Amino acid sequence: MKILDFLQKENIPFKRIGLYKEAFTHSSYANENKAYRGYYNERLEFLGDVALSLVISDYLYRTYPEKLEGELSKMRSSIVRTESLANFSRSCGFGEFLRLGHGEEKMGGRDRETTLENLFEAFLGALFIDQGMDEVRKFIQHVVIPHVKNDDYVKVIDYKTELQEVLQIGGETTISYKILKEEGPAHDRSFVAAVFNNGKELGRGLGKSKKVAEQKAAENAIK
Fold it and tell me: CA-CA distance, 187 to 181, in Å (whole number)?
């Protein structure tokens, strides 16, 4: 299936197919193909991230009038975290359309969590520029919101936020995270992170991405 086929299958109107090609172009492809004169997807990713956050925030605000700001922030964080967005990319088959450099392809970049997360956001950025916010909202309602309604992502605990709230009960405090170790081949990396409070280590965590490792470190610190 091509990008054009996906847009037609999803009944997404489009004017500038080049924007969507840009959304599915990784920096490694642009770097390896000197004849390529277009942009890669990082700028669109920046825009899509903002659009996604706005739509999800608006949905949560209207759907949960009884919840306070802190609770809504936790829910939003669980929905837009790396693992969630990577799964949305997979459900759309976005990895199939991605243009990668040969080196990145060999290292398993097509199924890397952060790459798929960025890809999903870049697609939203392209859709926003091409069709406006209404189409972005419609797409998110179709792809993301059903999972939110099923509590697939709302139930995910943001341990970093929870740890911060626990530690700040006694007043202002300094919390920091540090990646201590990276292991494994490039396509299957694992990270060890530690969380510190006022310079004292509270916990360590292991994960397939830096964000996951930090969440695990916060979870262990709470325990």
Answer: 16
Cβ atoms within 10 Å of 88's Cβ, excluding its own: 23
- Tokens 């189409």 correspond to 135
pLDDT 10s digits, 179-216? 999 988 766 678 999 999 988 999 999 987 888 889 88
Prediction pTM value: 0.70
Q: 101-111 burial, b for 16+ CB within 10 Å, e for fewer? A: beebbebebbe
pLDDT digits (tens, 9 = 90+) for 30-64: 888 877 777 889 999 999 999 999 999 999 999 98
- Catalytic center residues: 49, 121
> Which whole-number Å values give the CA distances from 11 to 6, 8, 17, 207, in the listed order?
8, 5, 14, 37
Q: How many CB atoms neighbour CB 152 within 10 A?
A: 15
Instruction: Name 183's bridge partners.
Output: 190
Tell me which residue of 144, 136, 112, 141 sits closest to 208, measured CA to CA: 112
Instruction: Please give the C-alpha separations between residue 90 and each of 59, 63, 104, 109, in angstroms, as whole numbers.
Output: 23, 26, 18, 13
Strand-pairing partners, residue 175, are 197
Beginning with the edge strand found earlier in the chain, give each strand of the sheet holding 200-207 in spatial order: 175-183, 190-197, 200-207
